[in-house]
Structure formats: structure tokens, C-alpha cells
Specification:
Layout: H1 3-22, H2 25-42, H3 52-71, H4 79-82, H5 93-103, H6 106-117, H7 122-129, H8 133-155, E1 158-159, E2 165-166
Antiparallel strand pairs: 1-2
């Protein structure tokens, strides 16, 4: 099947799929073109013609994913981050959490941040960090345990019988991590 035949057969289905993801016809058309450019340049990589349709949709899915990744704005610091720490008289759990996260080893901090703060799926984190999925999952779990331990060390929190942290945030001067 030639690239022209593939276009005639599948372009409408692929366009509807892309449109269902991006909701903007002009962007969908651009992504459709980009998808078929990839199809045209990588056609020789497809070994089994009976898998053509799923291969096309995979390329379209990755093209849409790449589009959304490129569209994510660079996060700016919230206004609260710009205020000096001493400007707020009250010591908060947020300050402790920031200190605990900063003190985590990088191998736990980065996957945990991407997962729990940025909201990325663990499979996407594994791809981005070029690690095996089980490795990423264990690093995130270990990072969460280290945060729990951090609150226990920093502010003398304890775990109740249900496994939840209980306690009160100490004054900043008494805090072992945030002071």
C-alpha cells in the first residue's frame, strides 16, 4: 500500500481521533499532517501490513502527546514563593514539606516530584527518565516513605494505628529541617 493509499483509507479516521484529543480543527489538521509525514518517512519500519491501522493510530497518539508536552507552559513561581520566608510569621506544613523534599536524594526527589506535584503518570516518568517502570514505582514509594519519616524527624510526628501521620507543626526555630 502506498502512502497515498494509506492517506485515502485512514486519514479521516486518524483526523477524528486527533480531533477528539485536541478539540481544535486547525490543530487537528496540523497534527494529521505531522502524523502522515512520520508515516511516510518510517513506512519501511512496519514489518506486518496487517498491523498498519494500529501502527498509524500509535503514531497519531504519540504525535498528540508530543504536541501537548510542547504546549505545557513553563511554570512560574507562585507569588507566595517570591515572598521572603520570614515575611510569614506562621510556620506551616508546606514549609516543612518543601524542606523535606529538598533534602531527598535526587533519585527519589525527581520521580516523586513529577508524579505527585506535576501529576505525570508513572509510565511517562519512566520514559522521560529512561528508567524501568518498576524502578520508578519503587523510587516514588521510597520517596513517599522518606517524606513520612521526614515529618517524624522534623516535627516529631507519629503514625497512628491507621498509618496516618499525626502531630502538630513545631515553631520554625524548633524545626530540625526548616529552621
Amino acid at each position: 500500500m502506498t502512502a497515498h493509499d494509506i492517506w485515502n483509507t485512514y486519514a479521516d479516521d486518524i483526523r477524528y481521533f486527533i480531533l477528539s484529543q485536541v478539540k481544535e480543527p486547525a490543530i487537528a489538521d496540523d497534527l494529521l499532517q505531522e502524523t502522515f509525514i512520520k508515516v511516510h518517512t518510517k513506512r519501511d519500519m512496519l514489518k506486518h501490513d496487517e498491523k498498519l491501522k494500529s501502527w498509524l493510530f500509535s503514531i497519531a497518539r504519540f504525535t498528540v502527546r508530543d504536541y501537548f508536552r510542547a504546549q505545557k507552559p513553563i511554570s512560574k513561581l507562585p507569588i507566595m514563593e517570591l515572598v521572603e520566608a520570614d515575611a510569614t510569621p506562621e510556620h506551616t506544613a508546606y514549609e516543612c514539606l518543601r524542606g523535606i523534599i529538598k533534602s531527598l536524594p535526587k533519585k527519589y526527589r525527581v520521580p516523586l516530584f513529577l508524579s505527585d506535584v506535576k501529576g505525570m503518570k508513572q509510565t511517562a516518568i519512566a520514559e522521560q527518565l529512561q528508567l524501568a517502570l518498576p524502578t520508578v514505582k519503587s523510587q516514588i514509594q521510597r520517596g513517599r516513605k522518606l517524606i513520612t519519616q521526614g515529618f517524624m524527624d522534623c516535627c516529631d510526628f507519629t503514625l497512628n494505628e491507621s498509618g496516618f501521620l499525626v502531630g502538630e507543626i513545631k515553631d520554625k526555630k524548633d524545626c530540625k529541617i526548616c529552621h
